[in-house]
Structures are given as structure tokens and as C-alpha cells.
Amino acid sequence: IWKAARVDGIPMWKTYLFIVIPMMRPVFITTLVIIAAGIVKVYDLVVAQTSGGPGIASEVPAKYVYDYMFFAQNLGQGFAASTMMLLSVVIVIVPWAYLEFGGKKRV
To answer: H or E stretch including 12?
Structure first.
């Protein structure tokens, strides 16, 4: 691909913009899914190391939900935050699963 782009006289920046980056799209999407899963699962590390402090410096979504549900006894805000967490994970997972397992059939 590199040699073909050079032979055709395509500038380096266009090669990256229209060839390299689109070819790396599955890598970017998979990385985004892994990072999103890590953010959701990082609750235990934050609680064990800092208990969410100082202040709200190391606040993560799962700890936010836990604090509002059980410490503040604010079930409405806790449920709303957990619903937003679920929606954010679904928004990331559904397109990834479609691109990874569905979509166009390769021949």
C-alpha cells in the first residue's frame, strides 16, 4: 500500500488520512471498548487506595453511584447515574459489536 501510494504520487499526509487511519479503525474501536470496561471496573482500586479522596479528586462513575445510593440515601440520583453508566457502555459496545461481528460479510 505504501509503495502504491508513493507511485501514484499521493502526499504522505493523505496516505495517513485516507489509508492508514481507516485501516486502524478496528484497533481504535477495540481500544475504546477496553478503556470503557476498565473505567467501569476501577471502583475497587479507587476505594482501596484513596477512598475517593482528597475531596472528589479520584471520583469514578461507580463510586459516584455507590456514594449517592448508600451514603447519601439519594436513590433517584443514584439510579439516574447508574442508568447513564449503562447507556454509556451500551453506546460503546453496540457499534463495536456490529463492526466486529456483523456488518459487511467478507469474502
So the answer is: helix 12-15
Grid coordinates given for 80: 439516574
Q: Tens digit of pLDDT for each residue in 24-47?
A: 888 888 888 788 777 777 777 777
Cα 90–chain centre separation? 10
Query: With 0-12 CB in 10 A as exposed, 13-18 as middle and 19+ as buried, what is 56?
Result: exposed
What confidence tens digit (pLDDT) does each residue in 60-101 have?
A: 878 888 888 888 888 888 899 889 888 988 887 888 788 777
- Annotated domain spans of the chain: 25-101
| Closest among 48, 35, 43, 49 to 64, alpha carbons compared | 43
Q: By the 8 A CB rule, do 47 and 67 touch?
A: no
Angle CA 84–101–85, to nearest 5: 10
Sign for the CA dihedral angle at 28, 34, 40, 45 comes to negative
